[in-house]
């Protein structure tokens, strides 16, 4: 393990990336743990306020991301400075993407169903960075043996082929399959050969004059969502907490039985 770390992470200059990814994941997990405690009214934590204004943690996240990013670009390319900036950047990115849904909707949807997009953004980002980190670097490693060169050439060919297959899956609207398929090739291949989702660019272009294909794609997407959405939501709830239930009509301000549709 130590030899692999030295040859494939430290020597190619990927150590800052490893530190940034570690800080990113740990920051997200710690932040979610704290917000869940605040939500439950437990522990010494509380929302940060200034002059009656609720300061969301995306604000310090943006600051840390800027400091870490500009610090790396400005002067640090290796050594302690690069490591510190990588940790700052990863920490800031974790805070920002934990509230990705708030930025997307420009509304405080943190504990709503729409807030699940934050968890998806974090998982997909960690998977992509992990792919870059785990990939073989063709440059930056000194004194490669003939066997190592052959292994890296084979790995690069496989990665390139799998990237093209993942692009096909992406065009079919299978975004999670495309991302995780970049790490696990059979996943991308399955996503590429199966029917496209009905709202994908592939379906809009190639199923336009094929009503049977559109109908089959819609039915398959419905069955897939019915089968996997509950499991995916359960995993997200375990990681990040369950969203608040959507308010019913009678729970809305000013609503009464007279406001409900139906015979008067």
UniProtKB/TrEMBL annotation:
Domain of life: Bacteria
Any coiled-coil regions, as ranges: none
Bias type Basic and acidic residues, positions: 247-264
Region (Disordered): 239-264
Keywords on record: Membrane, Transmembrane, Transmembrane helix
TM ranges: 15-34, 55-74, 80-106, 118-141, 177-196
Protein known as: Integral membrane protein
Biological source species: Streptomyces echinoruber
Lineage of producing organism: Bacteria, Bacillati, Actinomycetota, Actinomycetes, Kitasatosporales
